[in-house]
Amino acid sequence: MDWIAQHPAAFLSLAASKGMYFWMPRWHAGKGPGSGIETLVRVLWNLQYGVLAALAVASLGMRPLQPWRSRPTAVLWLALASYTAVHMLFFVSFRYREAIMPLLVVIAALALETLVARTTNPPRVKTPTRPRWNSAPESHSDGDSAQSTR
Question: Does residue 53 carry a pLDDT above 80?
């Protein structure tokens, strides 16, 4: 704690780099040359992670999913942020994020659903309706017309 008090800028820099390390995709080389199938699996795993992370980050720009507009989305982002913050203070390994990945998948799925809904059901432009006090007199089925209150 003394070191943090004496070096606050270095602490923040270290914490930020730990946070980035926590969420960066990793290429685990392993021992010795990997087989072709191992390389393919690692590429597919990182591709999957990249798509999930990109969709989750994109959700921040989608109006219905913005955490300051949607309480359920805010709870998901708060869980991700607090889990990350805890790991920024201590030892960081990309494997530790596996426990929180289901939340990232949920946020990514919400983003994908929002994108699909926008493309299949584009927003409709509402036509302005005339205020009731400006409407024309109504006609009744018996032939009489309602009197105007002008």
Answer: yes
Q: What DSSP state is assigned to residue 139?
A: B
Distance (Å, rounded) from C-alpha 1 to C-alpha 98? 29
Are residues 21 and 84 in contact, defined by beta-carbon separation less than 8 angstroms?
Answer: no
SS3 36: helix
C-alpha–C-alpha distance, residues 101 and 99, integer Å: 6
What are the tens digits of pLDDT across the range 87-103?
A: 887 777 777 888 889 99
Rounded to whole angstroms, the Cα distance separating 93 from 127 reads 54
CA distance linking residue 89 with residue 103, whole number of Å: 21
CA atoms in the 13 A half-sphere facing the CB of 142: 2
* Cβ-Cβ contacts under 8 Å for 46 (sequence gap 6 or more): 25, 26, 27
Check: CB of residue 70 under 8 Å from CB of residue 64: yes
3-state secondary structure of 146: coil
